[in-house]
Amino acid sequence: MALLNVEDYRQEARRLLPRFVFDYLDGGSEDEVAVKENRAAFEQIRLTPRLLNDVSVRDQSVDWFGRRLPTPIVIAPTGLNGLYRKDGDILLARAAARLGIPFALSTASNNSIEQVANASNGDLWFQLYVMNRDFADQLVDRALAASFSHLVLTVDVPMGGKRERDERNNFIMPFHFRPKTIADVLCHPRWLWNVGRHGAPAMANLATATITDPNTQAALLSRKMDASFDWDDLKRLRDRWPRRLLVKGLLHPADAERAVSLGVDAVVVSNHGGRQLDAAPAPIEVLPGFSAVKAPIVVDSGIRRGSDIVKAMSLGASAVMIGRAALFGLATGGEKGVVDVVGLLQVEIDRTLALMGQRTFNSRS
User: Fold this and answer.
1) Which residue range or ranges hold the FMN hydroxy acid dehydrogenase domain (predicted)?
2) Are 224 and 245 in contact (CB under 8 A)?
C-alpha cells in the first residue's frame, strides 16, 4: 500500500508496533484533549490565495541565524526512540543530515550525545531536561565538547503529565512484561526482530562513569524534574552555554520576552505535543501573540501536513519542529522512512505555496 501522507505513516506504525509502544508514541495526558485540539486548531485555519502571480519557481528555504535551511523543519527532541527502531536517535540524526535540516537529541535518548555526534555530520542540537543542577551541567559540557550547535532547554516539565495510556499498559522502566504484553510483542515479529530481541533500550546519556547520582535515571524515567528551576537558573545556564540557546515549552508571550531579555536566542512555542497539561492551549492558537517577541519563534505540536507548516509560517513562526510525524516514519521505514515523511511535507509545502500564489514564505509576489 502506498503511504501518501503522515496519517498513512501513522497507521502503518500502529500496525507494526506493539500496542504499548505505539500508545507511548501516539498518546497524550489525561483525556488527550490537548492532543486533539492541537490538530483541530490547525484544521480550523484557512488560507486565502492571492492569484495571477508568477509562481513557476518556488523556494521554501528560510534563514536561521545566517544559515539557509532548505525547509523550515527541525526534527524535534523525542525520548526513547530506540523503542521504534534500534539506534533510532542515530537514524533520525542521519536522516536530518541527508535532508540538510537540524536534529535535536533528547536528554532521554537511547543513543548518547557522543554516539550521535560520531554517527552524523549534520547540524545537531541538544535538548536539556534538568533533574538536578550538577547532572545538567555535565550534559551541557558534553554537548559542547561534541560540537552540538544549539541547546534547547525544555521548561514545561516541572513534573510529568498523567499519561493514562502508559499507565494502562503498565509502561514503566525497567520494563516488566505481563502475559498480555508478551503476546502482543509476539504478534509483531518485525518489531521483535529489530528492537525486542536486543532487550529494553538503555538511557545512554545516563550510562556513563561521570554520573554518580543513582537517583538521576529514576528521575528521568518518571519525569521527576527539578521543579525549583527558575529564571535565575536560566540566566546561569545562559552564561554557561556559549552557543545558541532556545527555551522550549512557552505558551505566554510575556515568558518569551523575559527569556529573550536574559539572552535566549529563540523560543519554542509548545505544549509538549499534548503530553503535559491537558488543558493547555494549542501552540498554533497562541502563536500570533508572540509577534512582539524580538527573537525567532519556533512552533510545534500537531503538525501533520505541509499546509500546517505554511499556516505556522504565515502566523509568524520562523520554523517548526516535528516530533510524532518523524517518528511514524522512523517506525515504518527507519532512516529512509524519516526522509520520506519530511519529503512528503516538503512537497505539500511547495504545492500549498503555489496554490497560495506565493513563491516564498516572505513574499506574495
Assistant:
1) 1-365
2) no
- pLDDT value, residue 222: 57
DSSP-based three-state secondary structure for 125 = strand
* Alpha-carbon gap, residue 336 to 328, rounded angstroms: 11
- Looking at the DSSP assignment, which residues form a beta bridge with residue 69? 62
Q: Does 347 fall in a domain?
A: yes
**What's the chain's length in residues?**
365
Range of the domain at 108: 6-356
All 3 cell numbers of residue 285? Answer: 492558537
- Place 179 in a pLDDT band, splitting at 50, 70 and 90: confident
Within a 13 Å sphere around the CA of 75, how many CA atoms are in the beta-carbon half? 39
pTM (global) more than 0.90: yes
d(CA 336, CA 236): 40
Q: What does the pLDDT look like over 111-120, one tens digit per residue?
A: 999 999 999 9
Cell numbers placing 260: 529573550
Residue type, 178: R
Q: Which residues are catalytic?
A: 272
- C-alpha cell read off for 88: 533510532
Q: Is residue 35 part of a domain?
A: yes
CATH number of domain containing 254 = 3.20.20.70
Task: Tell whether 106 is covered by a domain.
Answer: yes
Is residue 364 included in any domain, yes or no?
no
Residue holding cell 536522516?
Answer: 95
Measured between alpha carbons, how far is 107 from 93 in angstroms, rounded to an integer?
Answer: 14
- Per the listing, cell 490565495 goes with 49
Fill in the amino acid letter for 247.
V
Number of domains comprising the chain: 1
- CB-based burial, 66-102: b 16+ in 10 Å, e otherwise: eeebebbbbbbbbbbbbbbbbbbbbbbbbbbbebebb
